[in-house]
Amino acid sequence: MSYFAHKSSFVDDGATIGDGTKIWHFCHIMPGAVLGERCNLGQNCFVADGVRLGANVKVQNNVSIYTGTEIEDDVFLGPSCVLTNVTNPRSQVNRHSLYETTLIRRGASIGANATVVCGVTIGRYAFIAAGAVITGDAPDYALMMGVPARRRGWVSRHGIPLPEPGADGLTTCPESGLRYQLEDGRLRCLDVDEDAPLPEDQRTGTVSYREVRPRERGE
Asked: What is the pLDDT averaged over residues 57-70?
């Protein structure tokens, strides 16, 4: 396999690293960890035994990913976000056999300094705002904000807030023009298969989040 690891990082024997993956300064990848192709780990990251990362996962600086975490393709983990694996940790009580599973599904983004309490599922393309605290499951395409986090709207696959769906449940991404359907409380994309990557001509951003962001309280 062909991957890059900075000389200051440790990739332990027994770790599996996909082609094209880059591991930058002061990282530690433990035995049994699996990193897919074309991942990028910034400075000072840790990946524990048993963790699985899909392809094209972007892990920013100072992120630790502990045993019990499964991350699908195209996920973004923002700087210093926190992922846990025990709900009730105590220094004197060994709960290694009770690690809880956290699943972060394809295309989701976890914002800087956000905390994900273990045992939850972050849905496809969900967007967890900076500093949010996730204590329960996040639906596909949900915009989650606050402490504890609550859904404040829907976002597109491009991370752009979507207009409120009409009576027919339809809404359109202001950036890409991709259409979405809300049905029975679940949002799905009508124009691109949920398990398919974005087409090449859809991979350059043109609209800032701030241009279309939902109004905050007090504004």
From this structure: 98
Tell me the C-alpha distance between 154 and 101, whole Å. 25
- If you average pLDDT over residues 162-166, what whole number do you get? 94
Place of tokens 């409380």: 185
pLDDT at 1: 61
Coil vs helix vs strand at 211: helix
- How far apart, in Å, are the Cα atoms of 98 and each of 9, 88, 141? 29, 10, 30
Residue with tokens 């990913």: 65
As a whole number of angstroms, the distance between CA 84 and CA 77 comes to 14
**Tokens standing for 132?**
């949010």
β pairing state of 133-134 and 142-145: unpaired
Extract the tokens encoding 207.
Answer: 């609209």
> Element (H or E) spanning 212, and its range?
helix 209-212
Q: Which amino acid is at 96?
A: H
Read off the amino acid at residue 101.
T
